[in-house]
Protein 1
Amino acid sequence: MTVSTPTSGRIFNSYWVLATLLILGLLAGCGNRFEEQIRNTHQQVKANVDHLKTQLDNKQLTNALLIKKYANKIIEQKPDYADVAGLMAREAASDSEAFRSLNKRLENVNLAPTDTESANYNLQELQLINAAADVYEFNNSLADVVNTLASLSDGTLPVIDVPASQQSAAKQSNALVGNPAYGNWKQDSSGRSFWEWYGMYSLFSNVLGGRSYYDSWSSRPNYSYYGQYGRNRWGPGSDVTRNYDLSQRHPTKYNKPSASTKSRYSSTTSRSSSYGGSSKSGSKASGSSKPSSYGSSSRSSSYSSSRSSRSGK
């Protein structure tokens, strides 16, 4: 029978302590590596968001200028809509709901991920935010505000940046319904999903004649830049999932998910399941089916600023 001596016990304990310290050191090293990479990427994206703010504050976006022009026209034509038009006019600057929503997403990024899965998730969210903060893309998204104002003008103001086949749909005053910067889909006591505006945007309930219920709203043509393009390119994963699920519960010929929507939804739900069911942003905003993995040598090129060529539409 072998008997352990005090000396052998101390040696074993020493090895155990050393092994534990090595493991903890490796984990800490991985954590530091992730944190450094995500912080570097975050800084690049924040620089682009800050540049967008400067462009907005300096009135460099053409659609922002149109918002001001259209809002003033509505106030002149229809004094009863002055509050709504004034609210829309705020979307032409950096204190807009759209820009604040973008900043909030950036603030919510985890800057200290401790594993590859979490690091990839936060990198992909930064990619989406970066795509949304592109000056050219953000200017395009403001067309929904312009067209909302146009819809209140009784045809005196034209809708903009809309395909010919979608002109009549764009003339309805519902281009902001479905955009998570302005509200959210909720369920009433009967289980019907309705659009709930945030804060002051509840004024639109009167403009639209009451609540917008998803089943009736989705049963007729609806056009918005965010709904047609923005959601899949750079929208939050939670919004992609929510709208896809609603379209499955209330299928109509007008809300059939496109191939890009299905691809984005598949990516989002796959990643959500690995995060315990949370619904967060998914694939890379450029539309590629496989977002670059963390640590890719091409990672930094995804965040190069387009300032020199895109200072408006």
Protein 2
Amino acid sequence: MGVSIERDGGVMVRVPHKAELNDIEKFIAEKRIWIYQKLARKKAVNSERPKREFVNGQGFLYLGRSYRLKFVDNSEIKSGRSSKAAPLRLWRGHFELAQSEKANARNHFVSWYKKQIKKQLKERVLRYDKRIGVTVKDIRISDLGHRWASCGRNGAINFNWRSVMAPVWVFDYILVHEMVHMSERGHTNRFWHLVARVIPDYEKHVRWLNENGADLDL
């Protein structure tokens, strides 16, 4: 028997198919303190939300690096580009946002992150699909709340736009995790064995998300 705490705070108990209910209840009772400790730690970590303001000099994450925000005139951000250029860009080590769009800053950041994550995924899926033996047919980006990603139906993967704030090696782990779920739905021993074949030190990645995931937000 085994027990684990899922990314969404759910408690997953794995037992043999023919296990008796009394034995399962006894096992859970023995693990009760451990479960409460893990849930309390996850709640404490996830309650520490970042206090970012959309002001000059504030840092915003992209692939694990922090880039300071700089407000510029509309004419500056369109310089050398089309008149329909997006109001937010990552340029010469800064996030540049048109001054006139300050009130909509968060929406522009979310939109920018969604575009970047699609670019990253299209490139990085090709690194792992043959190694894992699956085919990703569709990528969907949305707000998944406390979940970093999920495995959809018919070869689709759903990604939280916040995940592209994580370091690239953590981002890759999230991707591999969901790609493996395409062939192995549950968090079984086989599932973790398949993950380890691609990312041998995946436990380090899981630990990083547990300890730093709350900071990946606006």
Protein 3
Amino acid sequence: MKVTDHIAQAKETLMSFEVLPPLKGKGIEALYTHLNPLMEFKPAFINVTYHRSEHVFKKRVDGTFEKVIVRKRPGTESICAAIMNKYNVDTVPHLICGGFNINDTEDALINLRYLGIDNVLVLRGDAAKNETAFEPELGGHKYASELLKQVVDLNAGIYLDDELKGTHKTEFCIGVAGYPEKHFEAPNLDTDLQYLKAKVDAGADYIITQMFFDNKKYFAFVDACKAAGINVPIIPGLKPIYTKKQLTILPKTFSIELPTDLSNEVLKCKSDEEVEKVGAAWLLQQSKELKEYGVPVLHYYTLGRPVLIADVVKQLV
């Protein structure tokens, strides 16, 4: 079932969660253990991230170095199918530009349709760790808008091989990312909104936002989107703070601001256990306010803290 269908049929705010594929070498039971505390809340869908391959240099016996391609968290497509099979819940695989060429992308989309997956979240993805700026794969997409067009084309039955006859049209519901505090590479929020509107005009069905900790920024973002003619559902992305280190890591990594009240409370904490309590209380208040506002879905980035998220959601349902 499509994300937009879930939203259209809902009588109240839905819940959704985002998870990482297990590290290579770990079994899928580790992921099930992560998800089990969350499934009692009957999420509308589960997002599964995709992680690009990395180039690492391994030292040979003779002292020289060999360049090796490593993917630390493989299996997004099959993990989505496994989650659907085990929990009977829809899944949303992330689809990124980095690490894919256009043929890889087409094959991945075909595989997803064979697996009965109706949704994708289209993202450019981050630069590789050894790159100062994002570089596309040889023969791949440079921008999320290009990747979006390929999905839209496949939905219209347009494949890379234009000699194919009687092609099957896919029916993917397509999500894209939105940034209430703007994407870090955009010169300003107005320009970022123009890029976002172009993606919606090109066929994006809904938006999931980058994490934020000040609801006023989300409300202002929604208003700005509406003023720009963006009328698709805008799903807020939420994450708890649970360590003091995040006060510096999150703003640097995601180009976001933390409210003064939140950072002051975290700085008073004497341990990360205390920080987790502060973060949970903040997340609960955010969630309550957003639910009262009438957001279509509360989307939680659960990475590493499913029990904390579950404790918060219990107080909402």
Protein 4
Amino acid sequence: MRIAVVNFSGSVGKTVVTSHLLAPRIPQAEIIAVESTNESAADLGLDVDQLRGAQFGKLFRKLLTASAAIVDVGASNIEDFLAELNKYDQSQAEIDYFILPVVPSGKAQRETIKTIESLSGSGVTPDRIRVLFNRVDVNSIDEFSPIFAYAKLSRAFMANPQAQIFESDVFDLLANRRLTIEAIVADQTDYRAQLRETDPDNEDEIERISDLIALQSLARPVHRQLNQTFNALFA
């Protein structure tokens, strides 16, 4: 599976989607960040090949031979990326799915629709354009009504309301520690035993271990929800 995570809008969670949702569930996927200024999956400890939008020729050749790839296209590079995509005849066919994360703000939703229009204009079929609802508070249908209305009107993309990531502090906490949610959930260290054995006067160590226990407790339900999100996104 070869996926491009794209959106004209910035700060919609493309790197969160790449690092925490997609990479752990697509075995052996090569991660390519088309980014020049912002955080990428490399900042969370993942192995990432970094390119710029104008280096599409190099990316195209990578996609020709990759069995699995995740291309995280930063907002500062997406215009170059899409322009180059149109230069190479049928190059969009080398990408199985275009995933568009979007947050509830009006600006983000408008720019998501603009991105969909651009991809459709490049010949990408509706089944390969999939919107992912990020930072959902309660209900994606209510919070992203312009996207669902446009989906019904245009039939140009897939919008499954269950393809959603709920608002959570866990992603910022993980970013501060440069960890993925997969890594923290997979950590089998018995931190509670460590906490019991720690010198009660060692306040810094107690705080460190307590923070890790709390982070794991917060991460586990989010990780389970991401499994459901992944299945809904590719249903």
